[in-house]
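User: Can you predict the 3D structure for this chain?
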Amino acid sequence: MMSRGDDPQPQALAKPTFSDVQASALVESVFGLKVSKIQPLPSYDDQNFHVCISSTKDTADGPTEYVLKISNTESSKTPELIEVQNHVSMFLRAAGFPTASVHPTTGGNLTSLVAVDGGSGVTSYLVRLLSYLPGRPVAEIPSSPQLLYEIGRLAGKLDETLQTFHHPKLSSLRRENFIWNLKNVPLLEKYLDALGQSRNREIVVEVIQLFKDEILTKLSHFRECINHGDLNDHNILVESSTSASGDTSYRVSGILDFGDMGYGYYVFEVAITIMYMMVESKRPVHVGGHVLAGFESVIPLTPVERGALFLLVCGRFCQSLVIAAYSCQLHPENKDYLMITAKTGWKHLQHMFDLGQKAVEEIWFETARSYDSGVSL
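Assistant: Here is the predicted structure, written as structure tokens:
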């Protein structure tokens, strides 16, 4: 699996492989909770389980559903990074965001390092227990302009709120060589062979070159902040409500997975969010303006940042698609999960490229402007 650690080299055997029984035993021994039901959840390179616990007089006040998160072997080597992620999730929850709380171990810690003897040596995994958040992934519902606006606004408020987050190990978020950091699009050159000789590869090569020329030269003009870095359509959960007139609306009920967190720029957050909201959309090119309007209702972009948006969205498509193709070669058994974005992603990237920056920007900026006049397109 492509490591989520700072080393851009892929880690072939990073993903944990705990059985349901082993995972259940972990919850009981590490966190002191009695498991009534456990089932695996899909994940990229960690291992997640949905855990239901039996209520006792000691746990009657707490949640009865949790997510057991077992970090991959590479991430488990950076406990300070996971500690910061835990504290960010709790900080945002205290500020009113729908993020998970972290259940302490029996020893009062937020994580536990579990050593497993797999026969060929001992492997250590960091284990956490997070509160289970309700709702359905955005990927499963038809996205409306209103929901896209709300998601853009959420991304802006999240970055704005994190300006006041402090932690002694905050420097661990400076992940210079992290393959998923949006400024590291040029690192994809190492993995291009996974695409063979194809039109897809030609587009990626072109994006990388444009990225070097147009984005890396302008980084000093972007405003820096801490990014969630992965507000994709499976990491945002929503719940529906029906109005008296029968209209269904959705509100965000959960923000998941702070594993890609790091220092970046405001414009990175909005670009990443736009790209992932395009994946399942029936009108992908029109998504950007609604997300941008929501984000800019909190943090207006500068002209230089706006001018970078098109290439940043293309760059994130390339990261997602190239890394998925490469990871599939290493882990064909995880192909269904790895290739979620690829089902539509290549088509969307090519369509954006065919339209060109000027035409796409026109659509995005016109849509965003319509919110100022109170008429959303």
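The chain is about 40% helix and 15% strand. The radius of gyration is 21 Å.
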